Automatic annotation (TrEMBL):
Gene3D superfamilies: 1.10.287.130, Histidine kinase-like ATPase, C-terminal domain. It holds the Pfam family HATPase_c. GO terms for molecular function: phosphorelay sensor kinase activity. InterPro entries: HATPase_C_sf, HATPase_dom, His_kinase_dom, HisK_dim/P_dom, HisK_dim/P_sf, Sensor_HK_Regulatory, Sig_transdc_His_kin-like_C. This is histidine kinase. It catalyses: ATP + protein L-histidine = ADP + protein N-phospho-L-histidine. The chain crosses the membrane at residues 24-41, 53-74, 94-112, 119-138.
Length: 368
């Protein structure tokens, strides 16, 4: 684009300066050739510095341009700086230093050939050091940004591998534990049966945590989740989800028995259980579950009567790996928001007096 712009300006100059039109047309042709070569050349990632050769050709054309304008360097200086800035963004500093000699010659030789005064020639003593200094600053900043990006990429790869490994390593032995617990539960009675029920619920919870880790990886890698949405009785969905919690938890359910939800059942349970566990952990009883239709949206609300969301957490409440000291909300609410958005809805927190209501919205299924 830089050389295409230079070609366009050379053509404009040819129209405004008939005496030098032929020379300027040659300059425009050279700029266009360089632009085309830059676009179609098979640059190889194994030779990242090869495009620096374009800079050398550019300096030669800049010198030709100055000569074509009769020694007027008003257009050469800015393009020289732009060419150096482009180089600083893409190449190491040794190339910028190596450019110093051809760039200086490209600027000075046309001035000498056209017989410019020593005062004009001395402008190189200001332009070239300033141009080189600015380009070195740009190169340093660009290098730091590239290093930071590569470091973040390494951290992300490590995090992704760790989460995948952890999730899979948890799921495999946990399946064996659940099978054993199920076998024991069939013949258990009394207190032993109650204890095995608790163990089975907690094993199911760990299994869901492993699934949540895999969900994070799927969301990060593809940006979307595949859902199996169907229409379910809302009250039945909530009661099944409550089965994963202790039966004596202070939870009140206020749902119209005729209400229905169009959701992915497993994802909905993840959302609701996350809301409920947070409300029970950080809020105060009673915890209330409500589902209501608002236009073409179903609102699932879990409200507690605690102190509400701390001020320092409000901006990051649904963020990935959000923390806030002892009241850290962790990863769960970020997953909740991604699951709600995958349904076409949203997850948010609404203040109540007292407490807070965690809300997930789901598009209502329209009648066919």
């Amino acid at each position: 684009m830089l050389f295409a712009l230079a070609a366009l300006l050379a053509l404009v100059g040819a129209g405004n300066d008939p005496d030098h039109a032929a020379r300027l047309q040659v300059v425009a042709f050279c700029d266009l050739v360089i632009a085309l070569i830059t676009m179609v050349a098979p640059w190889r990632p194994s030779r990242p510095n090869a495009p620096a050769l374009i800079g050398l050709a550019g300096f030669a054309v800049l010198g030709l341009s100055t000569w074509s304008f009769g020694g007027v360097a008003a257009g050469t200086g800015p393009f020289l700086v732009m060419l150096y800035a482009w180089s600083a963004l893409h190449f190491p500093r040794w190339i910028l230093l190596a450019y110093a000699v051809p760039a200086t010659l490209a600027y000075l030789l046309p001035l000498i050939i056209t017989g410019q005064s020593p005062l004009v020639l001395s402008s190189a003593a200001i332009l070239m050091p300033v141009t080189l200094s600015v380009s070195l600053l740009i190169e340093a900043q660009a290098r730091h940004l590239r290093d930071d990006r590569e470091r973040l990429a390494r951290v992300e790869r490590w995090r992704s591998a760790m989460m995948n490994t952890l999730a899979h390593d948890v799921r495999s032995p946990l399946s064996g534990v659940q099978i054993v617990l199920d076998e024991l539960r069939e013949d258990a009675t009394g207190v032993a049966a109650d204890m095995l029920d608790v163990a089975l619920r907690q094993a199911a919870r760990i299994h869901r945590l492993a699934d949540a880790l895999l969900d994070v990886q799927r969301i990060d890698s593809s940006g979307r989740l595949t859902l199996d949405r169907r229409e379910y009785p809302a009250l039945e969905l909530v009661q099944e989800a409550l089965g994963y919690l202790r039966p004596d938890e202070p939870i009140r359910v206020e749902i119209d028995p005729s209400a229905r939800l169009y959701v992915d059942k497993e994802r909905f349970e993840q959302i609701l259980i996350n809301f409920l566990t947070n409300a029970l952990r950080y809020g105060r009883p009673p915890v209330e579950v409500r589902i209501a239709r608002d236009g073409d949206v179903d609102r699932v609300e879990v409200r507690d009567h605690g102190p509400g969301v701390p001020e320092e957490l409000r901006d990051t409440l649904f963020g990935q790996f959000a923390v806030g000291g002892d009241q850290g909300v962790g990863l769960g609410l970020w997953i909740v928001r991604q699951l709600a958005r995958a349904h076409g809805g949203e997850a948010l927190a609404e203040s109540r007096d007292p407490g807070v209501a965690m809300v997930a919205t789901f598009p209502a299924r329209q009648p066919s």
